[in-house]
Write a structure and sequence with these properties.
The protein is an all-alpha fold. It has helices spanning 18-36, 42-49, 53-56, 58-69, 71-81, 83-103, 107-121, 124-135, 141-169, 174-195, 211-223, 226-246, 249-257, 261-268, 270-311, 318-340, 348-377, 380-409. The protein starts with 17 loop residues before the first helix and ends with a helix.
Length: 410
């Protein structure tokens, strides 16, 4: 594990406040469920609204676009008013947006509601990561982030499973109502957690020039850091090559092997199981592999998993492949997240928001391009392209990281 950069925020407490981290992890569960809810629902939505599978995937794309763009607002707001406070109110707004999804009278209304759902859910995970960065020393941050991500991983799993089960057995609106309830419960948990903590220390007075000028100034300060630009470009590409193919795994297994969508949703939950393996073993893996090998091995595992799902002769390969893909993804992505929390410590909320913005804009581009290819060539070429892209992205990051380390060594 490399030493933290010289420019650091005020000293973090020696022990992270576990209760607040648990509450944030549960909030991440709701956000993750909302994010992945539509994946296994795509074939059902295509049938319900009389659209192609590629067009149905817009419910994922608009969520990801809104999620990414909303970071321009939530990052500076978290730095200004306190990250936990902003997350709490965002959970309430996300609950209302999920209810609008459930009540949508048509496909256009569903897209609009998903756009709002992405924008409101956007505050939770990035600001939670930034808050952990404020309160956990750098040398211990990666394992703590991994434990926090158990909530997000569980949410991803719950969302995919709920979407698949709903597609076979329930009205398509049902899971959106469930997610709305989850967000309200998580908002209540965060209110309770905030009452046990001292007031936030990083609330800043508004800078002259208005809100938009202040937001632009904050992001410009982050982008002025050369290493921040590298991390942001890499995570954009990672989002595209991972989640472009991932959004169509359920549809691929359904179409190729004729599996019920509820069964497919259960298989894709293996991704979350792989993430849990990383989260529970993060301290050992980080210590033994180091950042370079976490990224390298993670990309190899994901590429092998996508290739296996694309070309395996039987559906049984999908369960271990999804598990391996989840393990590989969190090995690589958690390393990038740790770098994101230290790109600009004095503007950590804004920096992590920029990271999330790039990641989810990458996802939206990836899903959009994959949707175009799927309608013309099918799902297997999309999965294979993702496998190749992952190897290139990991190589590029490690190459830039090595160049940075050699420059620092003089």
């Amino acid at each position: 594990m490399p030493a933290a950069p010289a420019s650091v925020a005020p000293p973090a407490p020696a022990d992270p406040p576990a209760g607040a981290i648990v509450a944030l992890s549960f909030a991440a569960l709701a956000s993750g469920a909302s994010m992945r809810l539509a994946d296994a629902l795509l074939p059902r939505l295509a049938t319900e609204f009389g659209v192609t599978l590629g067009r149905a995937s817009l419910v994922i794309t608009v969520f990801a676009v809104a999620y990414g763009l909303a970071q321009a607002l939530f990052g500076p707001l978290g730095d200004r008013f306190g990250k936990l406070r902003v997350i709490t109110w965002a959970c309430v707004a996300a609950a209302l947006a999920s209810l609008l999804c459930a009540l949508a009278p048509g496909y256009g209304a569903l897209l609009a509601a998903r756009l709002l759902a992405g924008a409101t859910a956007a505050a939770v995970i990035p600001l939670a990561m930034a808050w952990i960065g404020d309160n956990v020393p750098y040398e211990r941050r990666q394992p703590v982030l991994a434990r926090f991500l158990i909530g997000q991983i569980t949410g991803f799993s719950l969302g995919v499973w709920a979407g698949g089960y709903t597609a076979e057995h329930l009205p398509w609106r049902t899971p959106f109502v469930g997610v709305a309830g989850l967000f309200l419960v998580m908002a209540a948990l965060l209110v309770r957690a905030r009452r046990r903590l001292p007031p936030p220390q990083l609330i800043r007075a508004a800078a002259p020039g208005g809100a938009l000028v202040t937001i632009a100034r904050q992001f410009r300060a982050v982008l002025a850091q050369p290493w921040a630009r590298v991390v942001l470009v890499v995570v954009f590409c990672e989002g595209a090559v991972v989640y472009g193919p991932f959004a169509f795994i359920a549809a691929h297994l359904h179409q190729r092997f004729g599996l019920a969508l509820s069964t497919v949703g259960g298989l894709v939950m293996g991704f979350a199981a792989g993430g849990l393996v990383f989260a529970l073993g993060a301290q050992v893996l980080v210590a033994r592999l180091g950042e370079v090998w976490l990224v390298r091995a993670g990309s190899w595992l994901m590429a092998a998993a996508l290739a296996a799902i694309a070309f395996a002769p039987a559906w049984g390969w999908a369960l271990p492949a999804c598990l391996v893909m989840g393990l590989g993804f969190y090995m690589m992505h958690n390393t990038l997240q740790t770098h994101a929390t230290q790109m600009a410590p004095e503007r950590r909320g804004t920096a992590v928001a920029a990271f999330a913005c790039c990641f989810f804009l990458g996802q939206s581009i990836g899903v959009g391009l994959a949707g175009l290819v799927v309608d013309r060539l099918g799902t297997a070429p999309v999965l294979a392209a993702g496998a190749a892209g992952l190897l290139v992205v990991a190589w590029a990051f490690n190459s830039q990281r090595g160049r940075r380390a050699r420059a620092a060594a003089g």
